[in-house]
Design goal:
Keywords: ATP-binding, Nucleotide-binding, Transport. The chain is of the alpha/beta class. The protein is built from seven helices and ten strands.
């Protein structure tokens, strides 16, 4: 199982947002670090097939990013997670499950299981409009996992989570990485230093570091030194 990214590039007029990125990702947790404007979100949106690259390719076990087969293996939580405020948590997951092609029986089973996983069972019947920011973010994580994805892409997923929720989330991500490719973007070093198998650092649209966190004595200092000019 391999996600192959070959010379992926995105250019907007005179600005190159992502610059010839090549990576081969297998099972595990990949932490994508970078300052705001480094190109992380543009990169992830191309991996999800939302943005068309200027050049380069993305394939998963031979499946092109634009194919239905690829999307069936994908779970995505965007930075700006959209929701329907009048839906309750359970109804929202059931709706998202139907869009992902799950049967009614499977949708109910998975939705109930995921609400328990992200600790929202007690508010499953409450309107999303009443949820806190952290609760909405946990619901977003749940919807990304509905189809048992092999590729999980999470853009700033810990936004709005309190310290306890962050710990719970990190434990969940570590577990998911045993059977899936998890790519998690953040500018908060502590979110990934204990769970990422591989750390990727992006600067000006390029990957400037690709290696294990164990290779670095102080990841936060290394990161700050790398981006001190920005």
């Amino acid at each position: 199982m391999e996600l192959c990214i070959d010379r992926l590039t995105k250019q907007y007029e005179n600005k190159i947002a992502v610059d010839r990125v090549s990576l081969q990702l297998t099972n595990g947790v990949y932490g994508l670090l970078g300052a705001n404007g480094a190109g992380k979100t543009t990169f992830m949106r191309m991996l999800c097939g939302i943005l068309k690259p200027t050049s380069g390719t993305v394939t998963f076990d031979g499946m092109d990013v634009s194919s239905e087969e690829y999307r069936a293996e994908l779970g995505y939580l965007p930075q700006d997670f959209g929701y329907y405020p009048d839906f309750n948590g359970m109804d929202f997951l059931l709706y998202m499950a139907s869009l992902k092609g799950l049967t009614k029986t499977e949708a109910k089973r998975k939705s109930k299981k995921l609400l328990e996983l992200v600790s929202l069972s007690d508010v499953a019947k409450k309107k999303i409009a009443t949820y806190s920011g952290g609760m909405k973010q946990r619901l977003g994580i749940a919807q990304a996992l509905l189809n048992d994805p092999k590729i999980i892409i999470l853009d700033e997923p810990t936004a709005g989570l309190d310290p306890k929720e962050r710990v719970r989330f990190r434990n969940l991500i570590k577990e998911l990485g045993t059977e899936s490719i998890v790519l998690l973007s953040t500018h908060i070093v502590s979110d990934i230093e204990h769970i990422a198998d591989t750390v990727l650092m992006m600067k000006a649209g390029q990957i400037v570091f690709n290696g294990s966190a164990d290779e670095i004595d102080d990841l936060e200092k290394f990161y700050l030194d790398e981006f001190e000019e920005e």
